[in-house]
Amino acid sequence: MNNVLGVVIPKGIPGEQVRQLLLNDFGIEIGTSFGPLNGKIWRIGTMGYNARKDCVMQTLVALEAVLNRLGFTTVQGAGLQATWDVYQVDSAHQVDSAHQVDSTHQADSAQRNSDHAQLNGAN
To answer: Region (Disordered) spans which residues (predicted)?
Structure first.
């Protein structure tokens, strides 16, 4: 499992200024990189508390707000909508998976009950 998402900083975006504004104005800390990628990517944590849907959404809204404040044009809400779409697909998949597991469990239970009945009848 990846614990950090690397985001390429587009040319012209003041990466360090964005990081500082996110921290100062929203309390969101994202990392920079090291070595040859220093100043070229942001590192955004994706485990634990930061992996919660509300934290992901808040980070995207804050990033959009900071970029707009710095004069960069973004499609309002596009990142948030794309993320919401992924969560919706994920939720639908989880429901399907839960249904499949439940169906399999029911079939296994029925088979065990049948096997048990046969064993008891054989005695």
So the answer is: 97-123
